[in-house]
Amino acid sequence: MKIGILPLGRPTFDLPYAKEKLAAMLAQLDVSGHEIIGSRSLLMGPDDAALGAVASADVLLILQVTFTDAAFTTRAACDFPGRVAIWAVPEPRLGGRLRLNAYCGLNLLSHALGLNDRRFTWAYGDNVDLDALLTGPEVTPKRGVPSGAAAIAIRRDLHIARIGERPEGFDTCAYDKAALAGLTGAKVTELTLPDLFDRARALPDDAVAPYATQAETLGGVAELDQGELDRSLRLAGALDQLRREQRFDAMAIRCWPETFTEYGGAVCGPVSMLGEARTPCACEADVYGAVTQAILQDVADAPVFLADLVDMDDETGVVWHCGQAPASMAATAPGATVHTNRKQALLLEFPLKPGRVTLFRLSQAYGQPQAVIATGEVLDRPMAFTGTSGVVRFDRGATQVGADVMASGLEHHMALAYGDHADILRGVAAGLDIPVLELGA
Questions:
Q1: pLDDT tens digit string along 170-182?
Q2: Would strands 317-321 and 436-438 be described as parallel, antiparallel, or unpaired?
Q3: Predicted pLDDT of residue 165
Q4: 356 in Cβ contact with 419 (< 8 Å)
């Protein structure tokens, strides 16, 4: 066959390492017996010339070498007349930065393709079965079923702040205000990032002081750039001021790139602080993620963490985000750090403490609402990646959970809380009259 390849990368990740990974992928392809066409270098963004070079292929093979948004690849896959396959590569859990984050890119793309009813095959690994990837069965969409549980009502008066718009190519964070209100009763107030930045800059010092006091308890805080630290803490004060003024229950914030490029301080540490104080905040302006957090927080009566699933092996998965999990989830004393890609303060850094956890998502996969639930155990393991992360042994097995993530078109954010809350969440789904998908079942 003629295989057209699109190797994806982004400069905010570890490009020398990404190039090593790509070289190993190409070496496997070159001895496969197939004709390989297309770019043999990482594509750093949308590239119509690269699309043209693979137009005659029998199979479009997307090489997810680092995380990317899904805008270019969704267009490529939906316009391609033949078979589409995706190959993403793992990286070792060594406690350092997340160098590639390719699994999350695969997750993001699987959701976008599901919304577009585009079938595909996928593989995650350094050495994969190319025959299965190129010729095996395509993903069969997986949907939830009625839970059969007694209905449990949620609050119908949630008030959500959406601050800034979702990043391009993040279909996982799209929302329809009327549909969300009809489903959950949640009201969304849309605000802008420049207004948040102006509010933060104008904040009096006494409004920042409580957050500065919290930051002083973090190891390594004195080593951070103090200007970045002050700007970051001002975001915490500004968000809390907005919460009090407009009685927000949760927030969805466009966290990058503008907080770094236009304002000069990270919102990740503030998100951790607000989450600990029971105002959950979703990254990337993920409104459904914010509502998911608010529901799970009420069910668990505990802080929640909106996490990415960034790695899966045969036994465990890794939940991670840049550095915004609530501090009460820490296995060790939280440290102060900078964003791994943007190199600005303030972020928290720690491994998640061992214990039973529930992951939950109010999902819009395949364009239909459903509740997605998974349970498992955070293991007593060293920190997998910088930021806040935990290694989870899923009750239903990592291999099947990973397969269901892709087959269900699940969004890349899931809310995590300590404890086993699956029974109550089944009742919540019944109260919302939506099906339940239990990952791995």
A1: 999 999 999 999 9
A2: unpaired
A3: 98
A4: yes
